[in-house]
Design goal:
With 192 residues, the protein is mostly helical. Helix content is 67%, strand content 3%. The chain has five helices and two strands. Helix 1 packs across helix 3.
C-alpha cells in the first residue's frame, strides 16, 4: 500500500490527535446521554482506536519520518473543506425553512472554528480572536479563530504523533519480551 501509506500517515497523525482534541473540548449542550452525543463518542473512539489496530495487525506500517508532512498536507486540505462547508452551512443554509416547516441546519461547528463563544469557553486563551469578525449574510465568523485553531492543532498533533509512536514501540518491545520469555520457558521444559 505505498500510496495508501501516505493517506494512513494522515489518518494516524490527525485522527488520533483529533479524536483526543474532540474529547477534551466536547460540547455537552444536549446532555451527556443524548443520542447525538453517544454517536459522537462512538465515532471518536473509533477514530482513536482504529489507527492503532491497523498498525498492530500489520495492515499498515508504523508511520515514518515523512508522516507528519503527509499529515500536514492532508489536514490542510481537510481543514479547508471544513471551513468551506461550515461557512456554507452556517452562512447560507443556517435556519433556512424547509417545506415541512423545520430548519435545514441549526449549527455547524467543526473544530470550534465557527463559534467563538464555545471556543473561548473551552480554550480561554483564545479571547483575542474576536477581533476583525467577517459577516456572511447574517452570520458572523472569525478568521483569527480559524487560523489560531489550525496553527495550534498542528503542534498538538506532532506531540501526539511522537507519543503514539512511542506507545506502539513500547508495545512491540513488550510483545518481543513475552515471546522470548515463552521461548526460554519452552527450552527450559525441554531440558528437564
Amino acid at each position: 500500500f505505498p500510496k495508501m501509506q501516505k493517506f494512513f500517515n494522515f489518518v494516524f497523525v490527525i485522527n488520533i490527535s483529533g479524536a483526543l482534541f474532540a474529547a477534551i473540548g466536547f460540547d455537552l449542550g444536549d446532555g451527556l446521554l443524548a443520542l447525538t452525543n453517544v454517536h459522537y463518542y462512538l465515532e471518536h473512539i473509533y477514530l482513536f482506536i482504529v489507527p492503532y489496530l491497523m498498525v498492530a495487525f500489520g495492515i499498515y506500517q508504523l508511520p515514518g519520518k515523512n508522516a507528519f508532512l503527509h499529515a500536514t498536507i492532508g489536514f490542510t486540505i481537510f481543514f479547508l473543506v471544513c471551513v468551506g462547508t461550515g461557512l456554507y452551512f452556517n452562512g447560507v443554509m443556517l435556519d433556512k425553512p424547509l417545506a415541512n416547516g423545520k430548519t435545514f441546519w441549526t449549527r455547524c461547528n467543526y473544530f470550534y472554528i465557527f463559534d467563538a463563544d464555545d471556543a473561548t469557553a473551552v480554550f480561554g486563551f483564545l479571547k483575542f480572536v474576536r477581533k476583525w469578525p467577517i459577516m456572511l449574510n447574517e452570520y458572523r465568523f472569525y478568521p483569527l479563530l480559524m487560523i489560531a485553531i489550525y496553527i495550534g492543532f498542528l503542534p498538538f498533533s506532532f506531540v501526539m504523533f511522537i507519543v503514539n509512536k512511542k506507545v506502539i514501540l513500547v508495545g512491540r518491545d513488550h510483545e518481543q519480551l513475552r515471546a522470548r520469555r515463552h521461548l526460554l520457558k519452552k527450552k527450559e521444559t525441554e531440558l528437564c
